[in-house]
Amino acid sequence: MAQATIYSVALAAGVSLATVSRVLNNPEKVKKSTRERVLKVINELGYRPNVIARGLASRKTTNVGVVVSDITRASVAEMLGGISDIANNYQYSIKIFVIREETDIIDTTHKIVSEQVDGILFLNDELAEQKVQDVKNIFDQNNIPVVFANVIASNDESPQVSIDYEKAGYELTKTLIDDNRKNIFLLSTARKYKVNDLKEAGYTKAIKEAGLPVKIFRTSGDTDINSQHFSSFFKDKIVDAAIGVRDSIAVSFMNIAIKNGRKIPENIAVAGFQNTKYALLSRPLMTSLDIPVYDIGAVSMRLLTKLMNKENVENIQISLPHFIVKRESTR
Amino acid sequence: MAQATIYSVALAAGVSLATVSRVLNNPEKVKKSTRERVLKVINELGYRPNVIARGLASRKTTNVGVVVSDITRASVAEMLGGISDIANNYQYSIKIFVIREETDIIDTTHKIVSEQVDGILFLNDELAEQKVQDVKNIFDQNNIPVVFANVIASNDESPQVSIDYEKAGYELTKTLIDDNRKNIFLLSTARKYKVNDLKEAGYTKAIKEAGLPVKIFRTSGDTDINSQHFSSFFKDKIVDAAIGVRDSIAVSFMNIAIKNGRKIPENIAVAGFQNTKYALLSRPLMTSLDIPVYDIGAVSMRLLTKLMNKENVENIQISLPHFIVKRESTR
DNA sequence: CTGAAAGCGCTTACAG
DNA sequence: CTGAAAGCGCTTACAG
Fold first, then answer.
1. Which domain, by its residues, includes B206?
2. Which positions on strand D lie below 7 Å from a protein C-beta?
3. Cys staple from A290: which of A245, A275, B29, B87, with CB 3.0 to 4.6 Å?
């Protein structure tokens, strides 16, 4: 049997389709008795409004677009968990848009606009700032609210939720300084992201305050590649502490340090960012800065729903709390 | 300025909207000169067809629904990578539907139907078989093609792409048997999934062939929990080899074995499933059965496009090759 | 409280 | 090769 439509419901209930529509969207405007009659028919027929038709007529799709770079990254997946939980509560559906290095961002953005999403969650932290601004402009022109999640947008007033990465970098570095470490490396990525820039800024600030030498080692996020970098690292560097901008980088470093005969944390203290499963499955267990990724996703989505409803939001730039989980790799 | 519509393009190009539509959908049916004129206007106006309106009129949304349980799992995220890459090629957009234990599957399935997706990729391996069948039936009734990705559907003829998990379990167990191990544990999950059942079947087959004792230890997928289980494990069990149904379980086991004074692989050989980053960041490096998760996603999506186009597909049940990556945790 | 009608922005037979 | 018209399944003023 064909899917029931609003027509068949109206017919069976002996009302007009306007009334059926009201029962669904503004039930209080319909007399109780008719409302119940319509509802009964809806149930019997298993009627579900065609979301596409509704989207066209109402100009609201109840779809939100989530823009990501690498959906494969644990933090991204975790954030999606938070997003989808809240989206479910608010009856929004999620459309994923993956932007890669090769893709024409502007073109893709226009494509997203043509998909008529009601709002955008932007998780892509790997885009150059200028590009982010371009993208933001296009969404603005089309009146589509955007929330940047775990991405520090350019220094404007864009809605965003994240943690204070500079402070986090500062604090994590400070714990190593307080442990009397003198040669503290920051293991960062070769490619520059705003988020990592902030971690670096915090690191540098703490290091300089302590009168220590700033030592930033740039490597790859790819474990196979950074293993090689780290192998040569130990030939010529003096090091008694290291912070990886991601847990995977820190664990990788730690493993190779051990292989090179260093004791953790006696010779070298190691800490990472993100507090992922890697930190829990490493030996020794690794100290890591916990970033509430799930919450960032959830809070972003909640903020977005408010913006989509044109509610007046007091604070559109939310900074969530972070904390350091101390484990065996530091003292 | 308001978004250009097909009307404004038609007006500016001096043709009917039918012609504009044809230029977009059946360009060969339009005279070259008019086609070029229309195309020019489209460019000038930055016109993009409203995907929703198109979806309503053509009854094709070029959306595919991806049904997942835990989007947070590395394998799911990786699969999504493959799916989105191919979806991009074929111009499909991806809508994510997360099904959790609490959710009413049947209701959600109806909801997905009402979203008018053209096809479904079903990644949810945590559903009981009966439920899977129910869900499948609903999609069938609504003529929505479904491909099961990395899920073994009930013993019917549903389209699916996966690996031969039983064979994989058999082979992995065999390598340990060939290394002369006698007390080989399978570390499985308490909750039963079809996929793990198959791994168990392969394990059991190999073990019985060798005349060894079947030893299945059930624990949790959660690292915090299984650590505790494994700690008590070593009090009373004789073991010289273990296979974790997931890498994370195997690494967790290995770490605790080492803590209990066992040498890997001398005393205990350890292997996992999935060949994730965990296997690469563990010490010793862990042997693991590589499951081409990305490819499973990509191939599923490609198969789905064919089904959505109503192409005649020879083989709708695809088994991708797997292989064992031997590392330091086994000999 | 309810219905008739227009309209959302497209596609798609049908004519010509 | 092109256009006029109907229709996809809804929502939403407007009347009453």
1. 165-290
2. 1-5, 7-13
3. A275
